[in-house]
Amino acid sequence: MNTLKNCQEDLVSLTKREKSVVQRRQALHKKYEEAVKLYAETDKPLKEIAEICNVSVGGLGSYLRRYWRELVFRHHGISVNNSSLQNVKIIETGKQNINAHMKYKDAVAACDSLTFIDLNISQIARKYGLDATAMANFMRIHYHDTLVWREKVRKQLGINDNTAHGARKKCIKQYAEAVRMYKETDMTMSEIAEACKVSLSGFSQHMRFYHSDILKQKRQRRKVAEATKTFGKLTGNGRMYKPAPATEKKYAEALDLYKNTTMTMKDIAKHAGVSSEGFRSYLHKWHKNLVLERLGVAGDVDENIDLRKAKRRLKTVAVKYEGAIESLRQNPRPIAKVAVEFGFRPDVFREYLNKHEPELAARQGMTCSASGKKISRRSEEKYFVAMKLYETTPESLKSISKRLGLTYNSLGGYIRRNYPEVISRHRDLL
C-alpha cells in the first residue's frame, strides 16, 4: 500500500516536460514494437525487418542500440555482461564495429604473418571466403601499418607485384580542395562535397583511406565539443551548434519583438503567428543571454537555473526607458508624445508604464490645454497625431480620421471643444 502511495506521489511530482518525455518514449516503443519482435525471434537482417514494418533502417537501428542493446548483442552472438551493456560500443566512428572485427580478424592475422607473405591481399581474402575489395578497404582504414609492412617485406623478397599503391594522382588533385576545407573549416563532409562538386561517397572514402590522421583530429575536436556546446561551434556529431535556417526564419519576427519591446511572451507569439511554448523553448535554447537580460540576471549564472521561475525586473528594458520616464516625471504630458520624442512605440511604452510605473501612469489621467481646459490625457494621446495632421496639412478631418481608424464625429468634437485654434490654422492652409 505504501509503495502504491509513493508511486502516486512520484507521478504528481513529475513536471509537464517529464510527463511529455515518458509519453513520447511510449509512442516510440509502440512504433517499433513489431520490428523488435521480428528482430528478437528471427534471423532476418535489419533492412528486411525495416521494410516489413515500414520504418527506416537508420531509425530502427538507433532505437535498438538505445533501448534493446541486449538484443543487438544476442542477435550477433556476442556475450557481454549485462551490467556493462551501456559501456560497450556497438558502432563507434572511426573504429571497427564488433561484427567487422569478428569477420576479418583471421584474415588480418594472416596478413600480419610471414607464413602468408607470399600471398597478396586478394589471395588471402579468397582463402578466408571474403570479398577482396572489401577486405582491402578494411585494411586501408584500420590496418594501414600492416599494409606498409607487407609491401616493404615483399619488395625485399622480390615478390612484390609492382603495383602502385596509395592514392592516384588524379584522385589527389580531384579532392585536394575538399581535403583542405575539411581540415581548416568546421563544414561537414556533405557540405564540402556539395561546395566542391565531388561525390560524397568518393570523398568520404578518400578521407578514410588516405587522410585518417585528419579524421582522427576532427573526431578529437568533436569529443571535446560534446561536453561544451557553444553557439556557432562544432558539436560532437560534426554539425554546427545553431538552429536550422528554417527555424531561425520562423522565429525572426518574434525574436525582434522580444529584443526591442516589453510585450509579453503570449502577445509576441500571437503577433508573430507562432506557438508561445515553441518560441519559449527556442529562446531558452538558442538565446539564453537575451532571456537573462530581460530578467535582469547578471554575472555568472548557474547553467541549471530555471528561467521560467525567475521573477526579476526587466533590467535592460528599464535602462532603455529610464530617460523617457524621468522626462515624463519632470514635465507631465501625453505618454504617446513622450514615446515619439524618444523613438518608442507608444502602445509598448504605455504598457511598460502601466506595469512597472503604475503611479506615474495614473498621474497622467488629466492635463490642461493651452486655454486652461482640463482634458483627458488618454484622449489627448488618442487624438494627438490626428490633430497635428489637421493643424499642419490641408487634409480633411474625415480623411485623417478614416486613415487613422478614428471616429470622425468624436475627433471633430474633441478639437472643437478643446482646440478651436487648430480649426482656424487648418482653414488658413486651404
Description:
This protein has 27 helices and two strands. It is an all-alpha fold and about 425 residues long. It has five domains: about 15-85, no CATH class; about 100-155; about 170-225, no CATH class; about 245-310, no CATH class; about 365-430. Strands 1-2 form a two-stranded antiparallel sheet. α8 (about 120-125) packs across α9 (about 130-140). It starts with a helix and ends with a helix. Mean pLDDT is about 75; it is low at about 310-315.
Distance between the termini: 90 Å
- How much is the average pLDDT? 77
Shape: elongated
Helix coverage percent: 55-70%
Enumerate how many helices there are, as a single number: 27
Total domain units:
5
* Structure class: mainly alpha
For the biggest sheet, the summary is: 2 strands, antiparallel
What ranges have pLDDT less than 50 throughout 5 or more consecutive residues? Answer: 309-314
Percent of residues in β-strands = under 5%
Strand order of the largest sheet: 1-2
Overall strand count? 2
Rg calc: 36 Å
What's the SSE pattern?
HHHHHHHHHHHHHHHHHHHHHHHEEHHHH
